[in-house]
Amino acid sequence: MPGMTRRSLLGASVLAAVGAATGCSSSSPSSSTSSGGATGTLDWWDHFSSFKHLNDDWARKQSGPLKTNVTHTYYDASKATQALQLAHQANKMPDVYSNVVGLPLPALVSGKWVHEVTIPADIKAKLPKDAFNEGITQLDGKLYGFPMFSLRQSSTLVWANKDHWSKAGLDPNDIPKDYGAFKDALGKLKSAGIQPLTLAIGADGGRIRDQVDDMAQAAGFPGYQGLQFTTGEYAYHHDAYVTVIEFLKSLNDDKLIMPGSNNFGVVDARTRYASGAVGTFIDGVWCAGGSKALAPPIVDKLASGQILVPTAGTNPWCYRGRPSAGYFVSADSKNPDAAGQLIASFMTEEYQKGMIEAMDQPPLNLDLVASSNAVDAYKKGIDFCKSNVFLMPQAIVRNPAQARVDALRKPVTPHVGNIVQGYLAGSIKDLKAELKKLSDATSADRAQALTKAKAAGAKVSESDYAFSDWKPGQDYGAAK
Length: 480
What we know:
alpha/beta, six-stranded mixed β-sheet, four-stranded mixed β-sheet, 18 strands, disordered N terminus
């Protein structure tokens, strides 16, 4: 899937600066329109490269029932956020757009990005009861969308090219799980004359930020995006983050990462993998569909492995929040009813099956994947996520008034991805000191937001973020 940060889709009660959804295919927008006797237009933008053909076809199919010409436009994720920002400034937003802006729902509402939607009762009945959460999918009782994707997904699986790994004497069906064994495998690829690894380190740093957050969890960080679950304190300078970034630097210093990766966005890096120019790529579970969209022949060469851990035998556990809306109706829409109906149509069985076949983000019902025609590497990735990605505690679920704090949060930079860029390039010398600055700056931003929210009457506290009863390796359910 394309280039935004999927963190927007996973409902964390923090401000997710513009980031990584995923994406590939062309670097310029492409669109498909259908008339079929319909009148007026309904513009639909998204960044899901794997869904491009599905969504082009769906736009044509829905034009008749909606009695309007539905125009679908795909942007790769590295360009989608800027395109939406410019459209928002000009009051020319599309009627429907994917959740790629990178702001929590309260900020989207206060910034006039979104329009309330009405979901038909039969569609609502298909969704889990906990799909609608104040501050995540709804605000002040008004619904702004619903989740389409499972929280059990990862941006940080290891993807191998079977041919390249076999040539190097490696088993692509048994990709090493720990740092040392993985680095040794990359060394064998290099010795066999194969470019070992690429990563999407460049662009705004959003993808590598998300992946470092994932790898830090697997390395033992007891929280998400720098926030420790039990204490509610920010600790980007935790040893787990240092361990992960030092590991990436060791790969870079030993020339195991493809030259230029420090400047690659998601599309750039995935293109190298899909075209066969590199043996290994760290990417999300959606890599199968994204790579197929770029270079269909890669499908037969796909192999996948779990998120890496520092030491063999370590549990590769990760944590995610409740999923937020996959799509929004724009506040600028002249036809919000039809726009809402288009979004509701994504929950039909026909569209859901199309999603799975496209092998992008997994649907809410992961049980549908096993019997699908998706390739084994994709199914293996889904199985890993089902067993190793858990529901995390969230302040906004415990206390919905935290939505007023989220609306006042600001992006903090340089973020983890920017720090990785600087450390690998040599411009940052003291990694832990830089991470400590990020912890302090993020804490200060939350403090100012809490102060302003309290002054406006919100009953919120820093204690809302501390979950002393959280335990690793299981879904958190005590604060529902």
